[in-house]
Amino acid sequence: METWNRHNPIAQFTRQRRKELNLTQVELSDTTGVGLRFVRELEQGKPNLMTDKVNQVLLFFGHELTPTPISDETRRDLGT
Amino acid sequence: METWNRHNPIAQFTRQRRKELNLTQVELSDTTGVGLRFVRELEQGKPNLMTDKVNQVLLFFGHELTPTPISDETRRDLGT
DNA sequence: TGAATTTATACCTTTTAGGGTATAAAAAAG
DNA sequence: CTTTTTTATACCCTAAAAGGTATAAATTCA
After folding, report:
1. Triad A67, A61, B2: Cα angle to 5°
2. In whole angstroms, what is the distance from residue B35 CA to residue A12 CA?
3. Low-confidence ranges of chain A (pLDDT < 50)
4. Do A62 and B69 touch (CB under 8 A)?
5. How far is A65 from B65, CA to CA, in rounded Å?
6. Domain A9-77 adopts which CATH fold?
7. How confident is the prediction along chain B (80 residues), in pLDDT tens digits per residue?
8. Where are the domains of chain A?
9. Which superfamily does CATH assign the domain made up of B9-75 to?
10. For FRET with A80, which of A24, A28, A33, B28 sits at 20 to 30 Å CA-CA?
11. Does the distance separating the beta carbons of B66 and A10 come in below 8 Å?
């Protein structure tokens, strides 16, 4: 099983934004319409998610998934 | 069923980069290790993909999926 | 401290993404 | 134009994501 990583870009972004708005995971789940379990797996860095669910959450923060140059953080994870 | 969109950021990016390198879908499939069908669905803008598969392809181009502010293109799609 | 709230883990079920392959359509090459 | 290559569509199958819920751990705050 691939390993989870709470510090991947998506997980980190979501958790940070949610906290900034002082929302609980339950509230974020309700407002975005995704399941509570999904919010949790997302924030805990589950390695495999469906893009439309992720975007459903990101949209709430005015964001979406797009390809960007690999970050140092990620490069470190890849052992490069 | 949600509608496909060949012009979404991920689809567009992948197709463009692949062409720049003069690769066929088959070649991209082989070198990245994802199925050929996946490459096709990706480039044709299937609305729902798994993030790790997408990243498996993007990695080949030195990129990865991250949250970015919503583009005008996407905003148009959302009818906003 | 202890009570209340928030987050994390575990189990089961339904749905669907992705792989493989075979075929058709379209594009490129000759 | 005809042939070859590339891309697109259609089918079945398997694996796993996402949902719901119940419980446990951790955090907050009185």
Report:
1. 65
2. 29
3. none
4. yes
5. 6
6. 434 Repressor (Amino-terminal Domain) (1.10.260)
7. 678 999 999 999 999 999 999 999 999 999 999 999 999 999 999 999 999 999 999 999 999 999 999 988 888 877 76
8. 9-77
9. lambda repressor-like DNA-binding domains (1.10.260.40)
10. B28
11. yes
